[in-house]
Design a protein that fits this description.
By secondary structure, the chain is α+β, with helices and mostly antiparallel strands. The protein is built from 15 helices and six strands. Strand 3 and strand 4 form a beta hairpin.
Length: about 375
Amino acid sequence: MTTSHRSSLGRLFHGETAVDFYGRRRRGFTVSLVLLVLSVVSLFARGLDLGLDFEGGVAWQVPATASMDADIARDVLRENGLDPANAKIQKLSNASEETIRVQVADQPADVVDAVQKSLAEAASVSSEDVSVTSVSSSWGRAITEKAIRALVIFLVLVTIYISWRFEWRMAVAAIAAMAHDVVISVGVYSVLQFEVTPATVVAFLTILGYSLYDTIVVFDKVQDNVKSFSGTRMPIADIVNVSTNQVLMRSINTSVSSLLPVLSLLILGSGVFGAVTLREFAIALLVGMLTGAYSSLIVATPLVALLKQRETKYASLVGPHSTGDTLRAMVVSGLPTGVRATRRAEATDGGPSSGGSDTATAVLTHPPRPRKKRRR
């Protein structure tokens, strides 16, 4: 079966796609810009729902019996001089039981004990069945500072490595893609008001690693093709498009194989078994992996092309780039064809040639030499 007769899915499976990633960069950048603006606006307007480990405070967890629900918990807080409006009350469930979790700011020890006893009486259980967790605000600040410090160190090391292994332009694009992924992921937590816990921070750091891995795969292919096409006058837009299409199926396979375990954590771990911690971790991973796969192809690689086309080597080649069957032929063969092959001939012969001829026609433009007559 020839490439032209394959379906779109068949071409994708066989690595014969011809997606114009560079040509569609404005659409991708626009979508990313809208998501980033929404995320930033939500962060300033609504903020993040920080968990106990970050804000500090006291949390009681009481079994949800017939006589205990969220409204009863609010009444208990009022009876003990606490404002329910400043409390966070959640109903948690797992495979074995349901509980009510009540969280407030830091309180004196006598208030903590009084609320514990009142909750136990309201739920008709013993005080030992009501668990109490207390975290100081200084502990929460220390956790936040360590998370920020780890993030900064990670970004510095990544920038140094990519600049050494590839070039500074790719380092800039990779950092931009990672920042894009983290801001959007944090924005989702802000919009939906998911609780941010230490598990969420670990997930965010995992997102950075995943985003970097997917971006490096594409950049490695771009660097290989820059060397392969070094003898041609091929625009960087073509090199980027060829490279991205050549690794497109690999990126999809990597994303799908990574998302399946995360979905199992989210559906089975959180939905079926009621593990809330797994839900917090899995949601951050799910959003981050989706944005990471998207940013590697739509944000990072076109950004590299925009930066590299300012180089002297590619500045004179800025203009129309290959699409459709011409692009597909280069993706499949890994060789310049059509107009790109003609440009190579022009560079070799020093003269113009017709844009639609192939390499052989472009090179063999001189008339054949006459044959010598044999002497009798």
